[in-house]
Amino acid sequence: MFELRLICPEDAVEPVCDALQALDALSVGVEDADEGTEAERALFGEPGLPPPAEGWARTAVVALFADEAGAREAARLLPAQDFFAGSAVQTIAPVPEQDWVRLTQSQFEPVQITPSFWIVPSWHDVPARAERVIRLDPGLAFGTGTHPTTRMCLRWIARTDLRGQRVLDYGCGSGILAIGAALHGAAQVDAVDIDEAAVRATRDNAAANGVRLAAGLPDQAQGLYGTVLANILATPLKVLAPLLCGHVAPGGALVLAGVLERQTEELQAAYRPDLALQVADREDGWVLLTARRV
Length: 294
What we know:
Layout: E1 2-9, H1 13-22, E2 27-32, E3 58-65, H2 68-77, E4 88-94, H3 100-106, E5 111-114, E6 117-120, E7 132-135, H4 148-158, E8 166-170, H5 176-183, E9 188-192, H6 196-208, E10 214-216, E11 225-231, H7 234-239, H8 241-246, E12 248-260, H9 264-271, E13 278-283, E14 286-292
Parallel strand pairs: 6-7, 8-9, 8-11, 9-10, 11-12
Antiparallel strand pairs: 1-3, 1-4, 2-3, 5-6, 12-14, 13-14
């Protein structure tokens, strides 16, 4: 296979992607061309906010072709199109042959949350000391237990008595937090996400782990919960403050992750009208914020 990499302005991303698919690209993906720099920015969508943009101000569009001739033909034809204005061909390069399954599996080892609570991919044996296990393989939805924000949430779940509680996982991704809550005794778990692929992944992962939960779109979250979990990003967490606080029952807990240490005070300010957030855990520059409704 050969990879064609383009740099496009935001308004050219959709027509360029459409054209690449029409030119028989095997796959087309978009990335933030400024990833890892101060200009990097997140794209997300949440209820009450405008739909996310198709791309970034400087978007890297990456297309895979079956052969070099197809990649070069696309690189020749696209610059002649009006919609390609402001865009540029960056590189055409062969994709090294890989055993992609073996490579992916090698990147995901069992993850220890506590001495007795582990996240274990399906191709690994369960550690002998594991008493509670989530079987989870990497997929389309975020949440494999390898990111500090997920680990902190799971640690909080493991040390909290959730028995008999009604729990909400808002922005469930793979469903890992919802599954963890169910394994730790939650009586009812609602897992919601704006991404239908995440909802499907959550249902599949719950079935694979033998737990019962209700997964759906955000409007499925109704009423009050003893625990509300949200592992998203700081900006949508600020926007969602009234909604999330409104779901926390008297005596219930709010648990927020996806927050960098430097963002702590702005999150505390956003939630202060309803709840007093405190730092409950720290890892690799990320914090876990929690509050309890009196």
